[in-house]
Design a protein that fits this description.
The complex is a heterodimer. Chain A has helices spanning 2-34, 41-48, 63-85, 91-124, 127-156, 164-173, 212-222, 260-272, 285-289, 294-314, and strands spanning 178-182, 185-192, 195-202, 229-237, 247-251, 276-283, 320-325. Chain A is α/β, with parallel strands linked by helices. Chain A has a seven-stranded mixed sheet. Chain B is an alpha+beta fold. Chain B is built from three helices and four strands. Chain B has helices at residues 5-10, 14-37, 42-72; strands at 80-85, 92-96, 106-109, 116-124. Classes of the chains: A alpha/beta, B alpha+beta. Chain A binds chain B through residues 13-14, 16-18, 20-21, 23-24, 45, 48, 108, 148-149, 151-152, 156-159, 167, 170, 174, 204-205, 241, 290-297, 331-334, and chain B through 1, 5-6, 9-10, 73, 75-78, 80, 97, 99-105, 121-126, 133, 135.
């Protein structure tokens, strides 16, 4: 038990260091970009303690709508607070600072949870409390290190691994006029292999995932359900042993997050029985939130080639298709 | 979240330092005693020599290990490359990432044809050691 406590204690020191560094980076970035009139430290500390209460799901009917509303309120609140902390920022910088603070918030939360179990274990001298935290410690540390590297990327507005899907969409839309289709989402009509492709992505270059669920629904409704297929492109977690940047293909709505957008997409396609395909670019948790690796950047070309193949094989000339590039579009324009 | 918390994590505990230095001092005393004991009691001198060497080696090792642990506590900032291309003549420029860069951002005119250049890639290169595994 003593050995386990020592191990958790060592990791806790590291987590504390990472958490403090994260807070420092966030404050420095706000001071540098936001040019605040007063010291933002107190506001940042208050922000790091924010929490979100998810809706009650004892009666699950309508819970998605409630969850979406809570998440919208949270997003608006975060953006307003960032704007108050850093008044001299534009939309892109507000998004990037929000992402930076969210990463710092995640690090603060991880540190506090591990500290809680460590102190509780010491207080109760319970082997099982210490043991359960010691067993998951390598995975927790991996996640904390990933967030630590994300902080700098978010602060500087560098593209991250999660943006692979957004980069695929950006490559397809570049040179074509885009329009706002849903909140923080843009779409472009792109001719591809004799078909009309509606390419969707979150509005860049600020850190943003948009609302691809609403965007897909809007395009389906605009075309009265006459969509031959939907292709979703996203970064996905790889298993150990798989290569970073491997491209794989499947079916279903390739989208992560709390599930609101996935639900909306599945509802929309069910109404018109539209087939849905997915192309994923594999990476691990560390790669997903840290600056984009060359292997992932290179995989974008392979993913575009796969999309073209799917379009050729599953649709015919003159059809309408939707290509949705899912992910955080930080550092990626359109 | 106090202001002193970041320095506390990077500092070695003063108690540990005290123990290390006391051990080191006792070891040195043992070595000195060993030298003076050689003429009177050779056996005791050898024991003192052994204790002195072991103590000195152990405390130095612990001290070095603690320093190593502090060094490891740092967030590494990887080097990020920005590739700028001219869409007209194909001229390419690769430089370090600068804040404000983003993919598909139009930047300075091309040195060759004066056309606006475009940021086409931003990425980091990771040199991974391949571990040999049959799977």
């Amino acid at each position: 038990m003593y050995v386990m406590i020592r191990e958790v204690e060592g990791s806790l020191y590291k987590l504390k260091y990472i958490r403090d560094e994260g807070r420092k980076i966030a404050i420095e970035t706000i001071k540098e970009i936001g040019k605040p009139q007063s010291d933002p430290t107190a506001k940042v500390d208050r922000f790091l303690e924010y929490f979100t209460i998810t809706p009650q799901s004892l009666d699950p009917a309508g819970v998605i709508g409630k969850l979406e509303h809570i998440l919208d309120v949270r997003d608006t609140r975060f953006k307003d607070d960032v704007k108050l902390m850093a008044p001299a920022t534009d939309k892109t910088q507000v998004n990037n600072l929000e992402n930076t603070l969210e990463a710092a918030m995640a690090l603060n939360f991880i540190y506090k949870v591990i500290r809680h179990f460590y102190l509780l274990g010491k207080k109760t001298l319970s082997l099982y409390i210490i043991m359960q935290i010691q067993m998951i410690l390598p995975l927790v540390m991996r996640e904390a290190e990933a967030y630590a590297s994300a902080l700098k990327a978010f602060a500087d507005g560098q593209p991250i691994g999660d943006g692979a899907g957004a980069l695929v969409a950006a490559r397809l839309t570049y040179g074509h006029p885009t329009r706002n289709i849903a909140k923080d989402c843009v779409a472009a009509t792109v001719p591809m292999e004799g078909r009309t492709a509606y390419v969707i992505k979150a509005e860049g270059p600020g850190g943003n995932v948009g609302k691809p669920g609403d965007a897909i629904k809007t395009i389906i409704d605009e075309n009265e359900g006459k969509i031959a297929t939907i292709i979703m492109v996203d970064a996905a977690l790889k298993l150990e042993g798989e290569e970073v940047g491997e491209v794989a293909e499947g079916v279903g709505a390739a989208i992560g997050g709390p599930g609101v957008d996935q639900f909306k997409i599945e509802e929309s396609i069910l109404k018109y029985h539209i087939p849905i395909n997915a192309v994923i670019i594999k990476e691990d948790i560390g790669d997903a939130v840290s600056p984009m690796r060359k292997e992932i950047f290179d995989a974008v070309d392979k993913a575009i080639e796969r999309i073209r193949q799917v379009i050729l094989e599953k649709t015919k000339e003159g059809d309408n298709v939707i290509v949705a590039g899912v992910g955080n579009t930080i550092g990626i324009g359109q | 979240m106090s202001k002193t918390s970041s320095s506390a994590t990077t500092r070695i505990s003063s108690f540990v330092l005290l123990v290390i230095f006391i051990t080191l001092a006792l070891s040195l005393t043992a070595l000195i005693l060993a030298v003076s004991a050689f003429s009177s009691n050779e056996m005791a001198a050898y024991y003192l020599l052994l204790i002195g060497f072991l103590g000195a080696a152990m405390s130095t090792y612990v001290l070095l290990q603690t320093r190593k642990r502090i060094k490891r506590l740092s967030i590494a900032a990887p080097s990020i490359t920005t590739t700028i291309e001219c869409r007209k003549c194909g001229f390419k420029n690769v430089r370090e990432f600068e804040r404000g860069d983003y993919i598909f951002k139009e930047v300075d005119p091309c040195q060759k044809c004066n056309e606006k250049m475009l940021i086409t890639a931003i990425y980091r290169e990771v040199k991974e050691k391949r571990k040999r595994t049959p799977f």
